[in-house]
Each structure stands twice: as structure tokens, then as C-alpha cells.
Amino acid sequence: MIAAPDRTPLPRTFFDRPVLEVAPDLLGRILVRTTPDGPIALRLTEVEAYAGESDPGSHAYRGRTARNGVMFGPPGHAYVYFTYGMWHCLNLVCGPEGFASGVLLRAGEIVEGAELTRHRRLSARNDKELAKGPARLATALDVDRALDGTDVCAGPEASLSVYTGTPVPSDQVRNGPRTGVSGEGGVHPWRFWIADDPTVSPYRAHTPRRRTS
């Protein structure tokens, strides 16, 4: 089980800050997904920041839509989107309400409930790969659009919640370009990860998708 200090929920004020402060500060925190079969806890090891309507790489760059509406709401909520017709990705909304910034959860270490994730991630060669990448993380935690808008500050009764964990010292945090983001949005060094952690996903530059005839 998770040690008692990790069971202190992060307050909403933690998320009500600029996205470039929140993103690296999420490393080492504990995300808990409560399922009917039991809890799954994940230590965050890699994240990516998106700065709303000022950021060409953000879903909110062109304003509010039915898809991204949660991003414009209060901080401390989950924004879940479906991509490429195949995968879900999980983000945490931060910054002042109306600004639409958020942090994509890219990778983590399953520290509790790994047995509940392995049947969803049959291609993982070991437990370090269970949540190594944003789509894999969401798949391992059984995250889909039904969790869009979940209040992650609501505590242990919520289906998704974030706890204090063990913050990572600044000298162990690395940053670099965001993975797979094209154009102007791809130049920002707003991906943050824990140095030398084996659960961190490999960097990949954007590759244009080919249209099939």
C-alpha cells in the first residue's frame, strides 16, 4: 500500500498556478485510479505542459470547443481526449479558470495494483513499460472519456485523485522538446521528466501521418 504521507491529496491551489510551475512539480506525485477491482497507484515520471490559447501545440489554441471545454474550467480536473481513433490521453487542468492550460501525463511507474493493469497492457515486456507513454498510461489505468472532468482534488472517493507523493529535487528534473508536436508548438522545451528513470518514454520528433488512398 501507499505510505501515509502519499495519501495527502494535493489541494486545488497546487494546480491554480502557471502551467510551467505545475508541470515539473507533478514529477514524483502519486496518481490513484480507483476501480471496482481496487486502486491503481502511479508515480508520475514524465509530463508535458500546454499553455492554452497562447500555445500552438495546445488543443485550446483556437478557443473553446465541445472537446476541450474542461480545459477552460477550474483547475484540478482531468481532461481526457481521444486521439487517432485509437487512444485516450490524460491531462490535468491547471492555471486560472478560463485560461485552458494543462499538463499531459506522459509516463509513470505503477507502484500499486500492477496486477490490475497487466491484462490491459499485454504488449508490455515488463512492469516498467506498463505506463511508458501517454496512451499506455491511460490504457493501463483504464482511463477513457467517461473520466473527462473528474475532480482530482476530491480525495480517495474520486475515480482519479492526486496525492503528495515525494517531490523530485530540481537537480533530477530534465526538460526538452515536446514529443510528436509539429510546427511552432513543437519548439517549446516543455516536456519534463525524472533523469535516468526507466519508465520515461523515448523522445520522438513529429512525423507527418500519411494519408491512405
Automatic annotation (TrEMBL):
Keyword DNA damage: yes
InterPro entries noted in UniProt: Formyl_transferase-like_C_sf, MPG, MPG_sf
Segments of this protein annotated with the region Disordered: 164-183
Assigned protein family: Belongs to the DNA glycosylase MPG family.
Any one GO molecular function term: hydrolase activity, acting on glycosyl bonds
EC numbers on record: 3.2.2.-
Name this protein carries in UniProt: Putative 3-methyladenine DNA glycosylase
Keyword field contains Thylakoid: no
Record keywords: DNA damage, DNA repair, Glycosidase, Hydrolase
Cited Pfam families: Pur_DNA_glyco
The organism of origin for this protein: Streptomyces polyasparticus
Ranges of biased composition (kind: Polar residues): 164-173
